[in-house]
Specification:
Layout (H helix, E strand, L loop, with lengths): L4 H9 L37 H12 L3 H14 L25 H16 L6 H21 L9 H17 L9 H12 E3 L7 E3 L16 H14 L2 H17 L1 E2 L5 E2 L3 E5 L2 E5 L3 E2 L4 H11 L5 H16 L10 E2 L4 H4 L3 H15 L5 H4 L7 E5 L4 E5 L2 E5 L9 E4 L6 E2 L21 E4 L4 E4 L2 H4 L2 E5 L5 E4 L2
Parallel strand pairs: 9-16, 15-17
Antiparallel strand pairs: 1-2, 3-4, 5-6, 7-8, 9-10, 10-11, 11-12, 12-13, 14-15
Amino acid sequence: MKSNINALGNWLMSWVQEDGAIHGFHNHSVWGSNPYRWADFTSGHSTWASPLMAALSRIVAEQRGSSLEEQALQMIRLQTSRFQEDGQYMHIGFQVGEMLNRGLIHNMMPNVALGLTALHGRSWLPAEAMASIQQAMLRNLQACDEIYPFKKTRNISNQEYCRLWGKLLYQQLFQDSPWREHIQDDLNFMIENYHVIGIPDEDCEASNRYLGDSTMVEPAEYYGLMIAPLVQAYEMFGEPHYLQHAGGLCRHLARSAWTDENGQTRFNRKWLLRGGEWIRLKEPMLIAGMGMSLYGIARYLEHQADEELAQFLEKCDETYAYYQTPRGYMASATGWQNEADIAPCAAWHTHDFYYLLHRHGLVEKMAPKLKEPYPRISVLLGDQCMWVEEGEHWAINDYYFQDVYKLIGRKDEAVFGRDLGWVGGERSLPDHLLFPNQPVFIKTDEGIYLKADEQTAQNIDVSSIADLPYLGLWE
């Protein structure tokens, strides 16, 4: 089984705005939160979605196309120009929404993405675009060194490694790096103070999540932010211990994985220390969002052959394909029993898209297909609710006579809302937000049915991760 990379890219581009913003329902399928849960209702740009820039930069480099080239440049212009007064990027709240305007990792991810964008785009990016990337990365990295000083705050491993990855990329791309003298010392500090040997066996290395806290290690989805900079450090400095430690982190991922009830290979949630013994937690855990960790393994395999890790990548590719819908997005997670299982996060999906392009390469004539309209209604059924989208409209809807969610929005809007039209008055949403063609599904004791006529049903793609079977039309 192979993922449809073209369909995933097309779905992601349906969230991209003319000004370069990447909209989405920013559902954090690892922590189970989203702006709806925090009453923020933001569906606008998120810096966590920035790897899409790097993916488009590569596509343009290999399949030159004027419309996609301009779109990629506009995304660069947006990400390199929207700053807060203190030098942090704007739109860093992700699953919390615009109420959150501080945090290290959501500043660091766009720096990595901008660096990768420049690496892929060196053959075609105009000088002014390269200059804007250089200036933005330098400004933000220096600002965050002041706001979140290394070794002096409650440092989180993946965030510090992501900071170092951005600095390594900057040093590779530009001649004026202010971090040349101490970046290897910082990398060695991370290895010495965070890495834990022996989880789940002596060939593996995990990473403590917090400096000085040895009771938990990082969740699996963040390991790519540690592996990739170690591989890059090996390439830049030629010291083999960086690659060796990267390999230990890779094996931790592969040997901590588990097989779900559908026979698919899944990332573990994390390991916790209890009574001197490490306990693995499996769920609830993401499906979409494995991308950067798998990218890290793929980068390691470029330097060190390893059949076990190669097979792990193949199995995870099959997991992507199994949980991918015809529209291109994947089920987000399992185990939450709420919207976190089914609501696809455009931001996480950009990480998967970047990895899948890296691993499998471009589909022939990919660039012009990324913006083609999708003519059908797409539905993903979950146990408690469903994701529905058609054109610019999207919804997290309820089963018939289970009125819990009723969230609706548009891909071209920076906010979404709850459909309270039945209440009336000022609580009613503007007409342009309403989603008039939402299909109705009924959940019974024996299964799930679509309440529609046969002609309407022919225009609906139905996928399901619900425990109850989907049984077709309610007749």
